[in-house]
Amino acid sequence: MPIAIIITDEAIPAIIEEQTSADLLARVNALQITLDGQSIEQVKAWLDTLPRPSGWYDNRADAQHAASLAVQKKQQVELTGADVRKARDRLGMTREQFGRALGFNGNSNTLHKAIWQIERDKSKLRPDKQEIMFGLLAALDLAAE
């Protein structure tokens, strides 16, 4: 039975399990946080943009495994400002570009300052932003292969 785990800032987290993919798609599309009428591929792509363990899973065991990995990852990752700086350098981005890529809002100066503070250990990179950063690094690695 397929399962969707949905964790957003806009709604209460949801775990939805249905007998078929079509039934699961109908339930997810019925939520007010998605655009009605999306295909399974569109919903899966949308779920991939959300914080982990959000996603579309083929069965309960896969969903539980993803949730377990997400909990372990949150417990294990303690990034320093130097780690964030290395990641930004590796991506070849300015502080402004990096801030935008991570989903920060604001003008050029605001974005630059936010990343500067993180790189100087004056503030921490939130777990959801870390997830985006790791995704950018993974995409860079895939593109290099």
Quick summary of this structure?
The protein is mainly α and 145 residues long. It has 7 helices and 3 strands.
Q: How many domains would you count in the coordinates?
A: 2
User: How can the largest sheet be summarized?
Assistant: 3 strands, antiparallel
Strand content: 5-15%
Helix fraction? 55-70%
Instruction: Give the overall pLDDT as a whole number.
Output: 85
Spans of 5+ residues with little confidence (pLDDT < 50)? Answer: none
What's the β-strand tally?
Answer: 3
Compile the SSE list and pairings:
Blueprint: E1 3-6, E2 14-17, H1 21-30, H2 40-48, E3 55-57, H3 60-76, H4 81-91, H5 95-102, H6 108-119, H7 127-144
Antiparallel strand pairs: 1-2, 1-3
Helix pairs in contact: 5-6
